[in-house]
Design a protein that fits this description.
Length: 148
């Protein structure tokens, strides 16, 4: 009986943790702030709206903790997000889109985001929805422009 509970616990924990394979990582040769400035400029240049830019390291510093350099950009375009939410309102839990810029322990800066197809896969959103493909393409182009 203990084995059943232990197995159930492991399954519950594993299903709550997103798989690293679901995350797309793009290396940048620029510092975090410069990479994020470039991403923000690309997002705004594409006509999308930047809703927030979160400096995680500054937040940690505000409570006397340290954290490596990390910033999150939250942005979107209602032309892509609205159809997702029309298909399933719960898509609003994942939208607007988010991209994290951070420096790892070896000093490499990364832009990381979740693949929209994976992100929306548990919802009533058709796997072949055109807006999902457009989100994937936009994220690829924007992050690619940011690291150049």
């Amino acid at each position: 009986m203990f084995k059943s509970f232990a197995l159930a616990g492991v399954i519950a924990v594993m299903s709550a943790i997103p798989a690293a394979a679901d995350l797309i990582k793009i290396p940048s040769q620029k510092p975090v702030a410069e990479t994020m400035d470039a991403l923000q400029a690309a997002v705004e240049g594409a006509g999308a709206t930047v809703f927030a830019r979160v400096d995680h390291a500054a937040g940690a510093q505000n409570v006397d903790l340290s954290l490596g350099d990390a910033q999150l950009l939250i942005f979107g375009n209602p032309k892509l997000g609205t159809p997702a939410m029309q298909a399933d309102m719960r898509a609003g839990l994942f939208l607007p889109l988010k991209v994290l810029a951070y420096q790892d322990g070896e000093g490499q800066v990364w832009l990381t985001y979740e693949d929209p197809a994976v992100m929306l896969s548990g919802l009533d959103v058709p796997a072949d929805a055109g807006f999902v493909t457009k989100m994937q393409g936009a994220l690829g182009k924007l992050t690619g422009a940011a690291v150049r």
